[in-house]
Amino acid sequence: MSKKIDVEKYFTPDLTQARKRTKKTIEEVQFDLIDTYKSIGHNKTYIIHTYGCQGNEADSETMAGILELMGFKKTSDESDADVILINTCAIRENAENRIWGELGRLKAYKRQNPNLILGLAGCMAQEENVVERVLKKYQHVDIVFGTHNIHKLPDYIQTAMFGKERVIEVYSKEGEIVENLPKTRNHKYKAWVNIMFGCDEFCTYCIVPYTRGKERSRSKDEIIEEVKELVKQGYQEVTLLGQNVNAYGKDKKEDDYTFGDLLRDLNDTGISRIRFTTSHPHDLDRKTMEAIRDCEHVMPFFHLPVQSGSNRVLKKMNRHYTKESYLEKLNELKETVPGISVTTDIIVGFPGETEEDFLETLDLVEKADFEGAFTFVFSKREGTPAAKFEDDTPEEDKKQRLYRLNEKINDGYLRGSQRFLGETVKVLVDGVSKHDDEVLAGYSEHQKLVNFRGDQSLIGKIVNVKITVAKTWFLMGELVD
Ligand code: SAH
Ligand code: SF4
Ligand code: F3S
Questions:
Q1: Residue minimizing CA distance to atom 3 of ligand 3
Q2: pLDDT per residue over 86-141, tens digit each?
Q3: Angle 395-418/355-368 helices, nearest 10 degrees?
Q4: Which of 194, 282, 335, 422 gives 320 a disulfide partner, CB atoms 3.0 to 4.6 angstroms apart?
Q5: Which residues does ligand 3 sit against, CB inside 6 Å?
Q6: Distance of CA 47 to the CA centre of its chain
Q7: Which domains does the chain have, with CATH numbers?
Q8: Closest atom, ligand 1, to C-alpha of 386
């Protein structure tokens, strides 16, 4: 449990607690909404602003599901909303700065409508310094809750609305697994499915193990049931979510059921496409690679964050692999699943990273032949070990490294597009293109964005498209039978 500070009634985060890992078994809790809460939102509206990763997008769908069960209706008009929730991300400083700006901006609506309930949720709420700042300087925020207690949202809304009290309740603990949560999904054909929560990797730069608790896997039966239900509802694609999906099931040693087994079982549910994110290289095993090879519904796409190509930096990051062992595993994956598209994440300017270290990263990028990457400049996160590492690289050098890296990464995107020229690919049609509503857009099995002319009745279907143009960021083609 977290320590209580300041005012007795507030539960504020505690990063030292959040870091602790024990062998205690993870509890499974069932969500239930008491009848008296089911009409609280009658004639009232809500908005949720979501930042951060797919895990947060999935959490926002749960928050929306809970609010709708309470009778709230979604609106897009902030001046009309009765509840505004901001689901936040703490991964980098610039992500947080945007959110502070957002909180300032929303103050105007609170002045206009004093009954408006403004809530801060997500990973930022799990940080000590954030909650201190909200307590002192953001009096207009009514509710603060973290990643462990989304299911208690009805209580918080009720207290803020009728008790007219501020609610600050953040737990810094390993966490449990909450089932039976309602979800209002944002997409009709593609769905997020959580397969595990938390992270035990403790990469030295990363805040996630502190904000999301211990690595814990959902039961396979719950996951399979959820996917079967999605198939019934007409969903075509699921993306399995976890900070390190390759570790799925490893927290339940007695079951001997891991990620590869789950992929095989989900392949039989009738869902057309299975994707997953994210993976830690050192937990990627042969069984998973073979499952991708054998399962026709598991897509030939793999996001495998490498972070750096320098062994010295990888060690300081606590990543448990070397440049050589990463490349070896990658080659094994590419040999097992020919044609698989691989993307990655890379951080430049980690404390103490030299020009030589950076050149190792460029060399790895060349050898790995990635077809895309998210690239970042290191951002210092209070409470993580790397925040105390000496960092004497000038910001300007870090920016230059990012620029040089991105040039190489963009070449990879282009090569990854060009290999499909003249090929016919299967596209799940998402909707109309952002730039031209007579053009349809969707993703191929290898996760390439494809634009082509076609009738809007094709939205939600999987169609064949022959690729005629290959650009860095997208493909263009013609519908074929
Ligand atoms: N669990 C996932 C990724 C989570 S965060 C994984 O390990 O693959 C997504 C990416 O953000 C990370 O892969 C990393 O590249 C980046 N990141 C995390 N912490 C960061 C920090 N402090 N500064 C810069 N980038 C960071
Ligand atoms: Fe962060 Fe590392 Fe866990 Fe990914 S694996 S969430 S980078 S600690
Ligand atoms: Fe951000 Fe939390 Fe996801 S820090 S990246 S929202 S796990």
A1: 53
A2: 999 999 999 999 999 999 999 999 999 999 999 999 999 999 999 999 999 999 99
A3: 10
A4: 282
A5: 52-53, 55-56, 89-91, 122-123, 207-208, 211-212
A6: 20
A7: 7-169 (3.40.50.12160), 184-416 (3.80.30.20), 424-480 (2.40.50.140)
A8: 22
